[in-house]
Amino acid sequence: MTKLLLSLHVLAAIVAVGPVTVAASMFPPAARRAAPADGTDPGPHAAGTVELLHRICRVYAGLGVLVPVLGLATGLAMGVLGDAWLIASVVLTAMAAGTLIALVLPRQEELVAQVTERRLVDHRGTVQLAMFTGVFNLLWATVTVLMIVRPGSTTGA
């Protein structure tokens, strides 16, 4: 049962978190291209690209709930819920989720509205969004490393 839970946990992380990290990273430059500061025409698909990237982030963020749920089930099955590396991972996962929900997705929504209404996109807003997205991605990368290295584990890794 542990191997099944661990496999589902890893698959959920790849399938759910992977697309969010990529789409969120692609969003700020896509928003800048969709509403160029020089007033040039961004092309017919620019707004659609921004909307699609935001939709990917929103949908896969919802699916991402499976990752900690399956992770906690796996930790319970392995008997490691009290281990420091797992507690740190849970805290970092909560921070990543909070960053995505409170800082990334709302700013994406604001930029989608600016782009679809053909308003000028504030460069500072896209830079700030890129920074929050980087923090989100760094938190997930740290959790991934903790899951692989598991300090103090008996696996020898």
TrEMBL record:
TM spans, by residue? 58-77, 84-105, 125-149
Keywords assigned by UniProt, alphabetized: Membrane, Transmembrane, Transmembrane helix
> How is this protein named in the record?
DUF2269 family protein
> Origin organism of this chain?
Actinospica acidiphila
